[in-house]
Structure formats: C-alpha cells, structure tokens
Amino acid sequence: MSSTDKRYATSIDLPTEDVFRNLQNACHFAVDIGGSLVKVAYCSKLHRRTSQVRDHKEDNNCIYQILEEDGYTRRLHFIKFETKYIHQCLDFIRGHLMQSKEFMLDKKNIKATGGGAHKYKDQIIKTLGVQLDKEDEMECLINGSNFLLKNIPDEAFIYQRHGQPEYQFQGIHHDIFPYLLVNIGSGVSFVKVESETKYDRIGGTSTGGGTFWGLGSLLTKAKTFDDLLELAEKGDHKKVDMLVRDIYGGEYSTIGLTGDIIASSFGKAARTDKENVPCYKDEDVARSLLLSISNDIGQLASLYCRLHQLKKIYFGGYFIRGHPLTMHTISFAINFWSKGEIQALFMRHEGYLGAIGAFLKGAEEEDTDRYTWGENFAGCSGLSSSNPLLDSRERSSTFDMLELDKLEKMLQPCSLLLDPKSYLPDTVDLTTDTAAREYWIDCFSNSVDKTRDQAMASQTGPDVKERAETFKQKYLQRLQELHDNPCAYGSLTVRSLLDTSSHCLSDCLFTDPYSQLKQTENEQALKCLPQLLHKLDGLSWEELQLSLAKGLLAGNVFDWGAREVVNIMENQDFGFVEAQDKLQERPWLCDNYEEWHQRLQDKPHKCAVIFVDNSGADIILGVFPFVRGLLKRGTNVILCANSRPSLNDVIYSELLILVKRVAEISPDIQAAYKDGRLMVMDSGQGSPCLDLRLINFELVELMKKQEADLIVIEGMGRAIHTNFDAAFSCESLKVAVIKNRWLANRLGGDMFSVVFKYQKPQKIIAAKS
Asked: In principle, which of 7, 97, 513, 521 could form an S-S bond with 616, CB 3.0–4.6 Å?
C-alpha cells in the first residue's frame, strides 16, 4: 500500500494490487450510500492476451494462421467504505476511478442509490464535479437481487449450523418469483417481489444492523461491526437472557415452548446486583443483542410470508455478512414461526444488491439483457469459515470481495433438460464427499507445475516466467482455501476446481495455453482422416455402427487434462490405433450399446445436438465420422463447442475452421454443411465440464427450431464429472473414457474403462399426494 493510500485503511478494505492496476481502465461506476456503509460498484476494461486462429489460402491449401492479439474484457468490481468516512470514498473515486482513460462521463452524471444519495448530494456534486442521478433504493435492491439470483450459480443457500452439509446451495434458476426480500441495513425493509418490475414494500422495522452496531457500541468496548460479531461468536447469551426454564423451571409444554427458548432478551441483566461485578462479559452482551435482533427480524419475515402467501425468503443487506451465528439465529426463527414450512435463504454477496442495481441503471445503454455476467473465482472471496476462532480481519477479508466477468452471450437453461429446476450439473459434491475432496485437491495441486510449464511454453516475452509462477501461487493458494473451507464459493466440485484454474490462468494473461498444441494435433489428425473414412466405408452396416462408437471413444482418450494419459503421450508413440487398443473390452463399465444399436435400426432422429470435447483426434477422428454417420441417416446435426478456451478443448472459432477442412475431405460433410443440415454453434461455456443451466440462448432457440430429439455429451468432464445423472426430455447418449485411475476404481473399473450410456426420453414422476 502506498503512502497516499494509507489514509483509507481505517475505513475500507482496499482492493488488491491487481485490482488497483485495473482502476486506470475503469469505465463507469455507481454507489449505494447507506446509513452505515458506502458500496461502490465499478466496471473495468481488463487487458487479455488472446490467440486468434484464422484460416487463409496459401498454394491452394487452407492453413492455420495463429495470431497472438491483445484483447479486453469487462469486469465488475466492488469496494466498501464506512459512511462516516464518505469524504475518503469520494477521494478514492476522484483520485482513481475518474482518472481512468476509459472513464465515460459524457453526461457528467453518476448513478447513486440509498438514503445517502439524498443526504450527501451536495457534497458529492461539489467534490466530484458531476450531476447525481438518484435511483430509487427499492428498485435498485430488487434489480440487484434478481441479477445475482439469475446470473451466479450457488448465490443463494440454506444454512444449517450443525447440518451435513452446513451450506445447502440452491443452484441457479430463472423462475425465481415470487419471493420476499428482507433487506437488513441500518434498518430493515420487507419487500414482496412478484416479477422484474412488480414489487411492493410491505413493511419494515427500525431494529436492524444499525441497532446492533449502535447498541453494541454503547454496551460493550467493541469499536467496529466486525468486533461485535467476533464478541458475539464467543459469548454465552444465557448469562444475560432470561430463558423459559428460568421462569417455569423447565419447559412450558402446553404452549410448545422448550426450556431453552429466550423468554426475555437481557432479562437477567435487570437482576444483576449493581454493587457487585456483573456476572456477564461484553461477549455475552453482544451475543444476546445479536440473538434479539436476529430473532425479531426472523419472526417478522415469517409473519409477512404467511400474510402474503410467500414460500421463499431471501435475506440481503450488510448485516448478515455470512456470519454463521446470525444466519443460524434467523434460520431458527423462520423455522420456528413457520413450523418448518418456510426456509431462510441467504446470499453470498448480499451486501452489494443496491450497488449492483444502481450499476445496472447506468449500464442500460449497453443493453444488459443481451449478455450474462459470470463469477470470476480468481478475483472473488468466498463465504467465511464458520470457525469461531477467525478474527474480524480474517472474516472480512474472506467475504467482501466480488468480481464478475462480462460474458458476451445471454445464457439460458438447455431446453432439452427434463426439469431445469431440479437439474444439478455435478455428479459428486466435494463439499460433503471428504475422500473425493482430498483426492481432487491433491490431484490438481500436483499437476499445477505441468500447467505452469505449458503456460510458459505457449508465449514469449520477458515476463512470461513471472506470470506463470504467479498463476501457480495464486491457484495453490485458492486450493488451500478450498481445502480449509470447501463451501467458500458454493458447492465444491471438480468443475469448480477446473474453472478456478482457467480463471487464474486468464488473470495472468494466459488465455489459451494449449492453442499451438491443439493446432498441431489437428493437422496430424486431418492427415489420418481420409484413410479412416475409406476404411469405414468398406464395413458392413453392423460393423460400421460399432466402429463409429469405438472411434468416438478412442478419440476421447486424447486429453491433455488427464495426467496419466499425458505421461503416455509424452513418452511413447501413441496414435488413434493405439488408443483403440487401450479401450476396455466389452462389456463396458456402462454399456448401453445394444440399445443404441437397436435404436439405429428405427427411423432417423430429426436433429442431434452434440457437445464436443477435445481437439485433434477426438474431434476429427472420433466425432466427425460419428456425425457423418448420423447425417447419412438423414439426421440434422448441431455441433456445440466452448465459446472460451479451456485445456485442449476445441473452441467455436477453431471448430468453424475444422468443419471447412473436414468438408474438403468428406463430400458428405461438405454437402450437409452447405445445405445447413450440419450447424456449428458456440455453447456459451468456457469449461472442460458442462453446465446446462447456462448455455447460449441462440443455441437454445436453434434446438427448438430444429426439434432436437437427441443430445450427445462427450468426454469425461462433460459426461462423468457433470451430467452423468442428468435427465432429458429427449434421447440422450453420454460417452466417455475414464482416464483417471482413482475415479475408475471408485466407479468399479480401471484405467480406460468405457461409459456408453444411452437413455430414452425420460418423464417427470409426479409426487404421490
């Protein structure tokens, strides 16, 4: 921290050096000024080094041209200040955000919400020299809440202090209405939300976060909000509160009150002998105060839900802050007063709802409905651990940071899912599966050197080694955090561990470390394709179908994300034939080939949607012959590739070129591509795994238009780590070779075990009344 920035240390959590570096590229910002805290949301234009793959003609041959280009992406950052230090907040905005070369202030106005937007209007205008657009606080809260619930997987969760798991994350759903939003700031507002535009503040109370902070400051020696939470975690409220058993000697069974229910908050304090030293401490007072306020808020929320026939309650504001005792108390109150019919739902980034809503107001000219934002795990902090030994600084530093990346596409749930509301992409939850968590975190920790080396080999320049080492340290630090606190970023899965690696690489300007390797493998595979197609054309129908299935599997063996396979490829000649020889003999570990074979004897599918995996032999020698077989049957095909790079997965821009290259070899592919029966789409994803809750909306529309009746998911990440149990309303085929010995053994197989899982359309089973 520089000397000029030390003056902020008493009031804010400053961004990291990486974020400060991005302040010079800030585009625009918005502020939410509450009675206790000021939250600033600002968007930066981040530098990204990208590899662009293009094709051009040279000597009548279509060849690759790989260009390393400088690109940019948008990222949304957040920072907070105590409102009593608002002058320092304005200094920060003026000295950093408004000095940005990218800052757009054509109209000389900024968006602001919260009570302070009115109270400090003149001070803001005078200090910053801008006009202030005061946005409605309730509208901003609702917009921010809807934004997070629809964009961020695992944003909302149920908390059970002694439950397994402790955090139950709710995934992501686009059908979120109606719900009750309880915003706990200095005071509390209860808002009934029925749609994007229809909401009503149905009540409120002045007993909120400001009450806890104010009374806590009067009654204890705590100086900050976090100090109070730390005291409350250590205290014993029974030394201050009067319980039912203190009055009745036990429970009051006739009205259903157990003996440990609080009958009177601070009731025992009134009986303290003032001439003697009190028998309670500051910790006990803080805990009693927290329980009193939390219980009252929970009871009011439950009563409002009953009054308005609502079943979901989301808690927002900056009072909760992921504090386990607070969430436990509110959850207990909701459960008690609703008799278990309603559950309290909390939000990982509940303190920034108003700031996000105000930011969205300022970004309306960018047509925010046309794209989606995704959480960046490299730049975010997660929910703090429930460990009561964490001090306030540790708790604050592990909860307050949020960074979102702008994704260029609007993402929607896949229309082929049987029930999008119940769909969960991940096969294993590492949060609860301790053995799997230990293995996979150790596995990724051991492979980080290989990833670092690949990143260094992919670029040139004086700072490449330094950036690669920074990636390694950042990823290892994140893995350690997840080992200690698995729930920090939502449900911990193999998918999230892989995505975190990609985010850390990208943050260190390694957007596509495998780009050159992928193109080399593509060229090698293209040379083998004519001979393979000729061989397939000489087979009988029976032989052909099995060869196409085995070819799809053999191609999937080539995976630079599988450590044991990488060792084989690096130390011996290993081609498509050798990969076929490695495959498990039938019967396979999961073997529905006979059902698939029988289905192929029936009428052709209308349209197959195929989510592809790796470049090289996988896509060219495995997928394209399989696609050719479907096209010959009269089935239209949509090939779906990732929008953004990850490992050696083929991406959309590469697949567009490969289709043209393969079309020059195969007349069937050429005719289908020309006639529009073979289509190439980007999935909207950037992961080795596949989350069908968030895919390109244009792909969703094309699936509907083409009346897709078959979905094919290929690869260990897409069909094993995710979607193995996914249910679809159409026929599905999940194909993968297991290239991890630990996983294979856990599933009852061995290395190169085969999963060939074909399922007919499934139906929703109605619950028995």
From this structure: 521
